[in-house]
């Protein structure tokens, strides 16, 4: 059985070779390129299962490449994992809002890199979740149709916004959502709300969920995700 094809876009030769070597050892077919222009050219000719994309590239940068990929019907469903420096929090948020699936900050260990890439590919291969179906996640049960939440079989009373945030995160475990994405998904673009209000909602949600609330993880500088 053939492994997934990964397009690696990285201009630093040492990192390019390190990533290529380690992912190839895991059985992936890796195509390394050093510029955004080359990446866009090759993506017109070949289909890849995932793009591993450095944000700081000469010429066309990683954010622009991500925007182009996610706005093109032929490539919009290809997962994008960003390679970023720790100082690039604003770019991480921008990339996630453009549709990137995950990010890895430099320096990183090869094992973490491999695990994150596999997790993204796993999520993409999973069947599409029926957003109206009940979710049973260990001690936590969420029923969208009934607007009910139970923890260890006991009902938990949530506000409409708290419920929408929980359902958004829980139906896509492992996905990182920026505060903007949360606002846009649960309240609509025309609703005036601040980043701070999302944080307040999360605090209240965790408190009401008790031990199950620990599965809502804070991704510093970016947003939140529901732990897989």
How would you describe this protein?
By secondary structure, the chain is α/β, with parallel strands linked by helices. It has two domains: 5-125, Rossmann fold (3-Layer(aba) Sandwich), CATH 3.40.50; 135-226, Arc Repressor Mutant, subunit A (Orthogonal Bundle). It is built from eight helices and twelve strands. Helix 1 (13-25) crosses helix 5. The longest helix is centred in the middle third of the chain and has 16 residues, at 110-125. The protein is elongated and about 55 Å long. The two termini are 26 Å apart. The model has no long low-confidence stretch (mean pLDDT 85).
Uncertain runs are none
Tell me the structural class: alpha/beta
Radius of gyration: 19 Å
Total separate domains: 2
Average residue-wise pLDDT = 85
What would you call the shape? elongated
**CATH fold label of the largest domain:** Rossmann fold
Q: Spatial order of the strands in the main sheet?
A: 2-1-3-4-5
What is the terminal separation in angstroms? Answer: 26 Å
Biggest sheet features: 5 strands, parallel
The SSE string, one letter per element, is EHEHEHEHEHEEEEHEHHEE
What is the level 1 CATH name of the largest domain?
Alpha Beta
**Number of helices, where a helix is a run of at least 4 consecutive DSSP H or I residues:** 8
Judging by the overall fold, what is the CATH architecture of the largest domain?
A: 3-Layer(aba) Sandwich
Q: How many β-strand runs?
A: 12
Strand content: 15-25%
In helices, the fraction of residues equals 40-55%
């Amino acid at each position: 059985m053939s492994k997934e094809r990964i397009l690696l876009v990285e201009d630093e030769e040492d990192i390019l070779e390190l990533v290529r070597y380690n992912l190839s050892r895991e059985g992936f077919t890796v195509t390394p390129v050093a510029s955004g222009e080359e990446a866009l050219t090759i993506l017109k000719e070949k289909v890849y299962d995932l793009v591993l994309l450095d944000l700081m590239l000469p010429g066309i940068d990683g954010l622009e490449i991500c925007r182009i990929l996610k706005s093109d019907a032929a490539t919009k469903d290809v997962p994008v994992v960003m390679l970023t420096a720790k100082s690039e929090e604003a770019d991480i948020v921008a990339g996630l809002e453009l549709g990137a699936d995950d990010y890895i900050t430099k320096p990183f260990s090869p094992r973490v890199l491999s695990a994150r890439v596999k997790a993204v590919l796993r999520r993409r291969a999973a069947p599409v979740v029926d957003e109206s179906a009940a979710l049973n996640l260990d001690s936590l049960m969420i029923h969208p149709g009934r607007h009910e939440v139970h923890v260890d079989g006991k009902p938990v009373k949530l506000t409409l916004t708290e419920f929408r945030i929980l359902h958004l995160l829980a139906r896509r475990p492992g996905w990182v959502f920026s505060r903007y994405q949360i606002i846009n998904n649960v309240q609509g673009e025309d609703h005036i709300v601040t980043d701070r209000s999302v944080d307040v909602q999360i605090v209240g949600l965790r408190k009401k969920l008790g031990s199950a609330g620990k599965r809502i993880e804070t991704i510093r500088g970016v947003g939140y995700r529901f732990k897989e």
